[in-house]
Amino acid sequence: MERPFFNTGLYNLDGLGAYPPNNEGVKAITRDEVDMGRFRPPGLRNVAITAPYMHDGSMSTLEEVIRFYERGGRLIESGRYAGDGRLSPLKNRFIRGFVLSEQQRNDLIEFLKSLTDKSFISSARFSDPFGAQAQSSSSTLPRE
Predict the structure, then answer these.
(1) DSSP letter (8 states) at residue 120
(2) Which residue from 70, 84, 124, 131 has the fewest beta carbons nearer than 10 Å?
(3) How do the pLDDT tens digits run along the chain, 144 residues long?
(4) CA 44 to CA 62: how far, in whole Å?
(5) In 10 A of CB 66, how many CB atoms?
(6) pTM above 0.70?
(7) DSSP-derived secondary structure for the chain
(8) Which CATH superfamily is domain 27-128 in?
(9) Residue 84 to residue 74: CA distance in whole angstroms
(10) Pick from 1, 4, 13: which is nearest to 89 by CA?
(11) Residue 39: which residues within 8 A CB-CB, separation 6 or more?
């Protein structure tokens, strides 16, 4: 099954849905304006340990991401990326915003944390190839 691409209202630089140059999503390939800001969302497995979030790493916590979706798009009030993503005409129709209580938001974060696969992240097969274990192995290699 092919996973679709979505514009979530992360940016709206010009009131018409524009994203920053060199960061336009599928539009960079199709050259079709309706594809502006469309990116493929990742799965939620291990989401609690994969910060920063969004395609461009512009959000650093799960709470920030949830508040973004609660609002229905991101508001950037000043600077070169100023705009209201909630008002983007290119934003996916499913991104409408919603209301959560503090408890519901905390519960959602705890649920997302429960999607962490501890056996995967602790497996030596997937460890950092440049980490301490790899460095100690490389110290036994002959030097040139």
Answers:
(1) H
(2) 124
(3) 566 999 999 999 999 999 999 999 999 999 999 999 999 999 999 999 999 999 999 999 999 999 999 999 999 999 999 999 999 999 999 999 999 999 999 999 999 999 999 888 888 887 777 875 555 544 454 444
(4) 11
(5) 19
(6) yes
(7) -PPP-B--SS--TTSS----TT--BTHHHH--GGGTTBBPPPP-TTGGGS-SBSTT--B-SHHHHHHHHHHTS-EE-SSTT-EEGGG-TTS-TT-------HHHHHHHHHHHHTT--HHHHT-GGGS-TTSHHHHHHHTTSPP-
(8) Cytochrome c-like domain (1.10.760.10)
(9) 6
(10) 13
(11) 5, 6, 7, 8, 25, 26, 55
List, in sequence order, every residue forming a beta bridge with 38; answer none if it has no partner. 25
Q: In the structure encoding, which two tokens stand for residue 43, read together? A: 């799965």
Residue 74, both tokens: 């991101």
